[in-house]
From TrEMBL:
<keyword id="KW-0863">Zinc-finger</keyword>
<dbReference type="Pfam" id="PF04770">
    <property type="entry name" value="ZF-HD_dimer"/>
</dbReference>
<dbReference type="GO" id="GO:0050793">
    <property type="term" value="P:regulation of developmental process"/>
</dbReference>
<dbReference type="GO" id="GO:0005737">
    <property type="term" value="C:cytoplasm"/>
</dbReference>
<keyword id="KW-0479">Metal-binding</keyword>
<keyword id="KW-0963">Cytoplasm</keyword>
<dbReference type="GO" id="GO:0003700">
    <property type="term" value="F:DNA-binding transcription factor activity"/>
</dbReference>
<protein>
    <recommendedName>
        <fullName>ZF-HD dimerization-type domain-containing protein</fullName>
    </recommendedName>
</protein>
<feature type="domain" description="ZF-HD dimerization-type">
    <location>
        <begin position="30"/>
        <end position="79"/>
    </location>
</feature>
<dbReference type="GO" id="GO:0008270">
    <property type="term" value="F:zinc ion binding"/>
</dbReference>
<dbReference type="InterPro" id="IPR006456">
    <property type="entry name" value="ZF_HD_homeobox_Cys/His_dimer"/>
</dbReference>
<keyword id="KW-0862">Zinc</keyword>
<dbReference type="GO" id="GO:0005634">
    <property type="term" value="C:nucleus"/>
</dbReference>
<dbReference type="GO" id="GO:0000976">
    <property type="term" value="F:transcription cis-regulatory region binding"/>
</dbReference>
Length: 98
């Protein structure tokens, strides 16, 4: 069985105007499992799974199930990182005018 880490990258925002443009990329990593396995008896117990590893290939139903603990991906804590790439063209316009 192959184990791999799931990282999803999506374009969140793409705002472009005449002076500058910005693109924001959001990457999500799924970390430790937060499922309370003792909730039905009134207790609190975690299974100790440290990081989500997909059971199957991307795009299948098994990609949402953790190979380590068997829980759905939604039980794992999300670590969201946002990166914004900006490009300013104001220096180009100022050099044309002089």
């Amino acid at each position: 069985m192959r184990k791999r880490q799931v990282v999803i990258k999506r374009v969140v925002e793409d705002s472009r105007n005449s002076t500058n443009s910005a693109v924001a990329y959001r990457s999500v990593r799924y970390m430790e499992c937060q499922k309370n396995h003792a909730a039905n008896i009134g207790g609190y117990a975690l299974d100790g799974c440290r990081e989500f590893m997909a059971s199957g290939d991307e795009g299948t139903n098994l990609a949402l199930v953790c190979a380590a603990c068997g829980c759905h991906r939604s039980f794992h804590r999300q670590d969201v990182q946002t990166e914004v790439a900006t490009e300013s063209s104001s220096s180009l316009y100022s050099s044309i005018g002089s």
